[in-house]
Design goal:
single chain; 2 domains; MetI-like fold; mainly alpha; two-stranded antiparallel ribbon; 2% strand; globular; 287 residues
């Protein structure tokens, strides 16, 4: 008996394809079009091929911003991933305290990015901010607006405060998904807490950690609003990351061709590094 194939389900997927095409593919093609043209106005443009790409690849602004971006994203991953795991391990598993902890951990994630920057901008001021005033009273010369080190530390701590909760909640869900039989076997073998973490919890968290690393890398690599509100990219260009350099080029200078080429290079860097992370972690898991 021949089974009749029903393709009606594709009509349900069609709206998704149309939405993705409208929100992602068409804007991307517009950027690609701009990246190969020299645009003077809406009616005057000339094809320049790969000239903008060559110019951007040799632009010191890209090199400096890219270095700052990799340093920042690397610091974010090195701090937030272990810290998120540690917080998830200490959270209660049941009862009212578990619900309260989940609510408290979710609060930073609900705050808009521009509000986070404003909070820390006020928090770090020496005249009205609790952090800045306390450090000044302790005799510590702290000023994120004029000191490069202070600006970097403040932006980094701000991001850790804002996004460590995401890693912790992901790890918490992964820990709760581990069957209790593993812990029962560990208790029978009298395994230590470190052995339980090393041989049971950490291997079971690999899939969750892959998601956490990918999300935090991509988000930290595209950071814009928080440091822009807090420091404006300063002092000097100390906290000017790739997204801010791109915005200045596209909006401030209105160099649409170079900005389009910059954005595509930016996108390819994120795609390449994310693929490397994914390949490394999945390859280690297969071993």
């Amino acid at each position: 008996m021949t089974k009749i194939q029903n393709n009606r389900a594709w009509w349900l997927v069609l709206p998704v394809f149309l939405l993705v095409a409208f929100s992602a593919i068409l804007p991307m093609m517009t950027v690609v079009n701009y990246s190969v043209q020299d645009i003077f106005d809406s009616s005057t443009r000339f094809f320049v091929g790969a000239d903008w790409y060559r110019q951007i690849l040799h632009d010191p602004r890209l090199h400096d911003s890219l270095l700052r971006q990799f340093i920042f994203s690397g610091c974010v991953l090195l701090i937030e991933i272990p810290l998120g795991i540690a917080v998830a391990l200490t959270m209660p598993t049941r009862g009212r305290w578990a619900s309260l902890c989940l609510i408290v951990m979710a609060i930073p994630l609900l705050i808009p990015w521009n509000v986070v920057g404003t909070i820390w901008q006020i928090f770090g001021r020496a005249d009205i901010g609790l952090l800045g005033y306390s450090l000044r009273e302790l005799g510590i010369d702290y000023n994120y607006a004029s000191n490069t080190r202070d600006a970097w530390v403040t932006v980094l701590v701000m991001d850790v405060w804002h996004w460590t909760s995401l890693v912790a909640l992901l790890c918490y869900s992964g820990l709760r998904a581990i069957p209790d039989a593993y812990y029962q076997a560990a208790r029978i073998d009298r395994a230590s807490a470190w052995a339980v973490f090393r041989y049971i919890q950490l291997p079971k968290l690999k899939s969750v950690l892959l998601i956490a690393v990918m999300l935090r890398f991509m988000d930290s690599f595209m950071i814009y609003t928080e440091p822009f509100v807090l420091t404006g990219g300063g002092p000097g260009n100390a906290t000017t990351f790739l997204s801010q350099t791109l915005t200045k080029m596209a909006v401030g200078q209105f160099d649409l061709g170079p900005a389009a080429a910059f954005s595509l290079i930016y996108f390819l860097i994120i795609l390449l590094v994310s693929w490397l992370f994914y390949t490394a972690m999945t390859h280690g898991d297969q071993k």
